[in-house]
Each structure stands twice: as C-alpha cells, then as structure tokens.
Amino acid sequence: MHVGLIGGIGVAATLVYYQRLTARCAAAGVVPEITIVHADVQELIRNNLADDRAAQAQSNARLLARLADAGCDLAAITSLGGHFCFAETQAISPLPLVSAVTPLDDHFVAQGLGSVGLLGTRVVMQTRAYGQLARTRALAPDDRLDEVGQRYQDMAVAGRCTPEDRAFFFRTAAVLMDRGAEAIVLAGTDLNLAFDGSTDPGYPVIDALDVHVDLLARLASGPDALSPDRP
C-alpha cells in the first residue's frame, strides 16, 4: 500500500520516520511506496496551544488531499503532538488515517508494563496520551508540565538536542521512574534527538514512534496486512 506522511512537525522526526519505515520494509523484503508532504510546525504549535482543532484539521485536510492526489492509500501524522486534532482531521480526511496513539496501550500490555512515564508535548503529557491508555497507568511530570513541554517544543523546532537538553530530559525521566514508572515512553517524536542511544539513561525507554512505524510497515506490505483506522 502507498503510505502518505504528513511531515515537517518537526523535520528531525520526519527523517526518523522515513529512515525507520524504509528499514522495516527492507527487512521484510518490501520496497515501499511513500510520499511525504511538509506541514508548518509553527502553525501546528499555534493551533495546539490555542486548542484550535478545527483550524489544524483544515490545514491537515489540505495536505491529505495532496497525498490523495499523489495516489496514497492511507496516511499518518508524524507527530504525537499533532494528534490533538486527530478525530477532527479523521472526519474530513480524504484518506484513512493510521493513529500513532491507538496502538500504544496494546503494545505496553504486550510488553507486560503496568505503568509508564510519558515525555512529550504539554497536551500529550497532561491528557495521558489523549486518554487512550485504558489498561496502562501513565505518569507525567505534572509539577513541571510547562517547563518540559516548552523544552521539548524548542528542541523539536530547532531540530537538534544540546547536552543540556539531554541531561534535562534524562533527569525528568529518572524522577518518573522513581515515582513508579516501569519504562519511559518517548511520547514526542522528536525525543529521539535526546534518547539517541549514544548514552544509556539507566532505565528502559520505549519510542512511541517505533510502535507507529511497525504498524505502517505492516500496512505498506500489502492491502491485506492490516485494516487501518478509517473515518
């Protein structure tokens, strides 16, 4: 199946999606069809902070129309923060949308995890992944939501992680582990800039991006691989 990606939110996350998706497909012996459109990260940030779901959904719909015109069979938003208007976008999308949030609860349960710590945008942390973790207890740095969310946003826009940023996120995650998390979930697609494997943080880390990419790779393998979320 031809996979469409709404990218650019941010650029670093888009590159990782492309790299990991093509690697998964190559391992399965599949040459995928992938088309990427570039979204405006600043527009997304403004709409997210204002909780203007309708405006962002309309912007997404214009990009999805371009992906449909390119022949895509389905599409995905390469940002967990961008999922704040997923339902509104899904309702007007010309293509089936594959959620990055819906598969997470099943994945955590399959891994035997009862409690996870979330790092990401303020909204993702505050809503505990949009309230979609029904069987997994989610912890967030509630006393520092604004600070963590802003730090993450700045890193995502810059597309790079400073040593100070990395140390900050590692410390924040360690506090969540002390509070009872069994693993830290990178619930922000640009957090791979900090948790890039170059330094062992000393606790288990799950990149939500990988869960999404695994699902997209299965769908890219053929029309019968899995049925995506449809409007």
TrEMBL record:
TM segment ranges: none
SUPFAM superfamilies, per the entry: Aspartate/glutamate racemase (SSF53681)
GO MF annotations in UniProt: amino-acid racemase activity
Recorded superkingdom: Bacteria
Entries under Pfam families matching the protein: Asp_Glu_race (PF01177)
InterPro entries per record: Asp/Glu/hydantoin_racemase (IPR015942), Asp/Glu_race (IPR001920)
Protein name: Aspartate racemase
